[in-house]
Amino acid sequence: MKYQLDFTANASTVVPPITGAIVGVTNPFLFRAWQPSTWPDAATLGDNEFIEVLKRIFEESILGEVRNVIEDIRKSNGTLAFRGHVVGIALMCALDAISSYGYRSMHNCKFIDTHFPDAYKPFSDRIYKAFRVSLVHNWNLFEASIYADDSTIRIEGGTLAFGLHNFFDALVAGTEDYLNSLPSGGDILTNTRNQYQKLRTSAKP
Question: How many structural domains comprise the chain?
Answer without folding.
Answer: 1
